Automatic annotation (TrEMBL):
Its EC number(s): 6.2.1.3
Keyword Ligase included in the entry's annotation: yes
Identification of the protein by name: Long-chain acyl-CoA synthetase
Any one GO molecular-function label of the UniProt entry: ATP binding
Gene3D superfamilies reported in the protein's UniProt record: N-terminal domain of ligase-like
A cellular component annotation (GO) from this entry: membrane
Domain AMP-dependent synthetase/ligase: 26-455
Key word Disulfide bond present: no
UniProt keywords, alphabetically: ATP-binding, Ligase, Nucleotide-binding
Enzyme class: ligase
Pfam families xrefs: AMP-binding, AMP-binding_C_3
Amino acid sequence: MPAQVEFDTIPEMVLRLCDRYRGRERPVLRHKVRGDGWQEITWEGFQDRVQALAGYLHRQSVREGDRVALLSENRPEWAVSDLGTQLIGAANVSIYTSLPPSKVAHILRDSGAKVCIVSVPVQRKKIEEIADTCPELEEVIVMSETADDPPVPMTHWDDALAAGREHWSEHEAELTGIAESIAPGDTSALIYTSGTTGQPKGVVLTHRNFCSNVKGALRRIPIGEDDHHLSFLPLSHAFERTAGHTAVLAAGATISYAESIEAVSQNLQEVQPTLMISVPRMFEKVYKRVTKQAKEGGPLKQALFDWAVGVGERHAEAQQKTGSGPNLLLRGQRAVAHRLVFSKLHEKLGGNLRFAASGGAALPEEIGTFFQAAGVTIIEGYGLTETAPVLTINPLDAPRYGTVGHVMPGVTVAIQPLEENEPAGAVSGSDYPTSLSTPEGEILVKGPNVMKEYWNQPEETRAAFGPDGWYHTGDVGRFEEGYLKITDRIKHMIVTEGGKNVYPGPIEETFKTKNWINQIVVVGEGRPFLAALVVPDFDALRMRARDEGIDESTCDDAELLHHDAAQALFQDVFTAYNRDAAAHEKIRNFRLLGEPFTVEEGTLTPTLKLRRSVIRERHADLIDEMYEEFGR
């Protein structure tokens, strides 16, 4: 569906949407207030807040091209801050709330932000701790209580909006003129990459980058005025910012903000969204829980579950491949399967979901196929922060799991074989659908969604683009009948002692659906074979221990990991994998870890990607031990 209004900049989009919905009492944002339930903000109320925030920033001498940092969880104030900043031509610098003070300080200094808007006290305290190291920071706007003796001037959110309303009223013509003068090539935001290695880089994204991507996405993803999105992925992430924020607004739909990640399950049932945007991790957890319950229910329940999944798969296949759709018998079986097996899953997702979108990492094919069989179609896409971010998306009526779909409108993607200098097999979004298949190689991109530059890093910017203007993604993939399939990141490639090139990502994905495994990292650079570091799913492991007659209540996690039965269980998992794996992709040894990889301890990025170099360094002794066992 197209956007509800025509626009080429974010301020143009916001002002035209507010004009369209003025007086219609349509909710645009919803949030939960403790003791008062879900509260709605109409488009008129939203416009009032956005203009008030813009007025205050202008009053405080924030001008076109300046940067305003935003350190906040998903909430209405995030949207107001983002759009109010852009309404006067400044750029939003959104910061993950999971970052430690040192990383926040780096982003504030690097971006040169004049103002920082913060949410809760724990985030405000980060700014207090680092304010002296950020000389260009002039003011902090605080959504909660301000500090008693702050190291930098602090203003409460409510006071800022009150002063901003007055300033907007007094200077409305001037401020409206600024909003209307913003050009598509002007900077909209600086989004800092997660930084799997080194310090994060600021990606400069323009209004053209975001607007072209949103309009292209809405031509492929059917979001309309009656849709409702529950937002819980961090809005600092380009995926949620474009797909779950800007695109939903452009469609005239409603956004509800989850109270927290922990409350998502409850909020889904309260909000009953029609669409959901998530990362694969959430779908993996739901899949494991559902399959685990079926197994624990005994042979009869497991057989019923398997029958229902089979019916769902045949029903989905018939919908895609035959003109007449599923026959009467299959439709009847599908209704029974839904009533007996899948209805509870739909209820847990709110009971109103039309489809879900997945991005940020690879969605295992098995999980996508299962959800489609259950009547919840997941459309997986692919993109990068540097491409604002969506490059490809699976079609809702013909998703192909294991791929990331077709190229977006306005975007051109090419594959450059790793041993060659010229791109081959370029696919434009205007060619959709296409039957092109290509060899494997690096994914190259051109289009209006590709970033302007890396902030203050001209050498990094030049290195990212080829001499012919292609942006080099660093990802490896190929086209299969017009669907793009991602293999891995070039920099993740393992070169074994024998000179074999191995991409660990696809190998790790094969283990994501195994009940005993929570996280896994494959290692083997310069080694004679591959090995793995594994974080078990301790709940599943303890349940298995009870089944084996082990009194797991007397064991802590470390003792359980070293139990012979636990070691044998994981050895069986790898033995089963190795039967069908190529010789150079077999995993010949492993170690179980007692603590998960997390953002807080530095082994995951804020977008939950593995920091492989950190993990290898932290567990170097264990890795060496695995090879020493084989005399290597």
